[in-house]
Amino acid sequence: MGHRIQEIIQVLEQWAPPAYQESYDNATLICGDRNAKVTGVISTLDCTEKVVDEAIELGANLIIAHHPIVFKGLKSLTGKNYVERTILKAIKNDVSIYAIHTNLDHVATGVNKRICDQLGLLNTRILQPKRQALSKLVFFVPPSHKDQVLQAVFEAGAGQIGEYKDCSFQVEGSGTFTPSDRANPHLGTRGVPHVESEIRIEVILPHYLQGKVLSAMRSSHPYEEVAYYLQPLENENQEVGAGMIAELPTPLSENDFLDALKEKMNLSVIKHTAFINKPIQRVAVCGGAGIFLLSEAKRAKADIFITADVKYHEFFDAEDQLVLCDIGHYESEIFTKDLIAEFLSIKFPNIALYLSKVVTNPTSYR
After folding, report:
1. Where is the signal peptide (predicted)?
2. 67 among the known binding-site residues?
C-alpha cells in the first residue's frame, strides 16, 4: 500500500505547523485530493506551469512549493493569468499543490537554519522569537491517575521546553466538591460534600495544540468533570519566530565574507551598504523579505544582515551599525527546495522524490 497525500501533509505540518504562518499567508493544500495515493513528489521554490509540466512528465502527483501559487484567493478560473493557468493545469492532470511558506520560515529547523548551514554558521538561534505562542495548562488529578493523564498530555504535545520534553510542575493538595443528583462521580457520593487528595499539575503547550491536549486530558482523566484552566503566556517561544542569528567559526574580513557568501549561495551579485571596516563574525539572516528585522539584527549586535527585497531608502537605516545585504528573494530561498526534499526523504524513504529543475526566478541580471 502506498502513502496518501494526507500522510505527507500531516508530517509536513508536524514540522512546520500552519498556525505559525503569517495572517496574510496561504500555507495549505492549494488544490488536489488529500486522499489520493502519492505517485511522486516534486519539491520546488515556486509552482509555475512549467513545474506542473515537469510533474506530469515525471509521473508525480504532488508538488510541494515554498511559495503559495494562490495568495489572495480566486474569484474565477478562466486561465487569464499564470496563477489560473497553473491551477487549471494541475487540476486537469490530477496534480496536487501544497504550500509550506511562512510557517517553514518560522521554525528553528526551517528556511533560515538552512541558510545558516549553507554558510557554515554555528550557534544558531531565532532572531525574533514569537510571543504569545504558548499557554500554561493547570489541572487537578487524583494520585492514582496522575501518570496516566500526564502521559496522555505529553503525547499530545504538552511539556516541551526547548530541548527538554515531559516537563511539568506538580504539588499535592486537597480538592473539594459536592456531586449533584444528576452527577455520576468517580469518587464521592451524590449530594454529599467530599474531600479528595489531588495533585495540581502545570504544563506548557503551544497555542495551536490546545484542542488536542485538552482532548487527551479529558479522555484519560477519571473525573466526569475535570477541573482545569488555561492561561496565555507572554513568554517568547525560542523555537519559533522570524530570522536567525549565528556566528562564523572564525571572523572574516568584509571582503572575504562577501566572497564566501557569493560562492556558497551561488550568487552573481550582492547589493549591500558600505563596509564599516569591522571583521564579520555575528551574522543575521532572513530568507525572503526581511527588512522588518533590521532593528532586531542591530540589537543582536550582528556584524552583517543578509536578506532580500530591500528598498532604496531602507538601506540608509543600516546607519553604519552593520553591513546590510540584499542577495535577492529567489537566491535567498532557493535551497528551501533541498531542505524540503531532504526532510521528506528521511520520513518517506520509499517515495519517488524529485527536486524541480525548473528555474522559477522571474528576474535576471546582466
Report:
1. none
2. yes
